[in-house]
Specification:
This protein is mainly alpha-helical. It has 15 helices and no strands. The radius of gyration is 24 Å and the shape is globular. The protein is 69% helix and 0% strand.
């Protein structure tokens, strides 16, 4: 019997060439950032820009981590910025997962009036971009005195309709017999939640952790509005502040060094949790 998919050397070669070209297109800007972070600002300003590593890597990275570079309109230590980004990303990630788990648990396993309306009210918020609600959110945060604080950076971003919807769909696949068995064993709602649902949801939680951590780490618009003090800048906002001096006033070697440092934590999370992330997206065993 003839196989449906035939092995064609020409098509295989073409696919590999396209894959390599795509990889080069994606990796080349990252390579430029890494190379630029090892040179002086004067070397980068020359045409053509050097394409090989320079000898100022340790000097540049030490300057941005300690805040001694004096680039653009910001002289804040990048080490502090990365700490703010880490705390913010972790708070947003853990908060989103916790709130979404409990919300989905209530929607699936509790009977209360207007339950369907509540679900659709949550679901409709998926259609509302952040820009639509950012002005009233800023007003509330400002009135509560939460500007330039971790609470102001994280609390408005914790609720997640997407995660609630995903957990709800997963909980609907849990067999009713499992719920009845837990009830017959005398397990209350929270014991059922912690002892049964959470272990079953670990792969989904891991996948959402990766997604939400990157989402929290890369936040730009909201921190740009909610922070006016340099010691509360996340690293993404810090990069933009470092480029506020115009092309001639920017020290691009320090900017690129900061950009490289900003890429490391999300990259590390993806690499370390890659197996769990893929399993959480494709695993269909219940």
């Amino acid at each position: 019997m003839k196989t449906v998919v035939e092995r064609r050397p020409t098509l295989d070669l073409l696919a590999q060439v396209v894959m390599v070209l795509g990889l080069l297109i994606v990796a080349f800007p990252l390579y430029l950032a890494l190379i630029a972070s090892t040179h002086t600002a004067q070397a980068i300003a020359q045409a053509p820009m050097p394409m090989l590593p320079g000898g100022h890597m340790l000097e540049n990275y030490a300057a941005v981590l300690g805040g001694s570079g004096g680039s653009g309109a910001s002289n804040a230590p990048v080490g502090r910025m990365m700490w703010v980004s880490l705390v913010t990303a972790m708070a947003i990630t853990v908060g989103k997962i916790a709130v979404s788990l409990l919300s989905a648990f209530a929607l699936v396993y509790f009977r209360f009036p207007l339950r369907g309306l509540v679900f659709w009210a949550i679901f409709v918020t998926l259609m509302l971009p952040v820009e639509v609600r950012i002005a009233p959110t800023y007003q509330v945060v400002a009135d509560l005195g939460l500007l330039n604080s971790y609470a102001g950076l994280t609390v408005p971003l914790i609720a997640s309709a997407t995660a609630t919807f995903l957990f709800r769909q997963f909980f609907l696949t849990v067999p009713d017999e499992l719920v009845e068995a837990a009830r017959m064993d005398g397990a209350g709602p929270m014991r059922f939640f912690f002892d049964i649902l959470l272990p079953l949801s670990k792969t989904s939680i891991a996948a959402l952790f990766v997604i939400q951590f990157i989402y929290g780490w890369n936040q730009y618009l909201w921190p740009l509005l909610a922070t006016t003090s340099e010691d509360m800048y996340p690293v993404v906002v810090g990069i933009r502040r470092m480029m506020a001096g115009g092309d001639s006033g920017n020290q691009w070697n320090l900017v690129m060094a900061t950009a490289v440092l900003a890429m490391l934590p999300p990259t590390l999370v993806v690499v370390l949790m890659q197996r769990w992330f893929v399993k959480g997206l494709v695993d269909t065993e219940k």
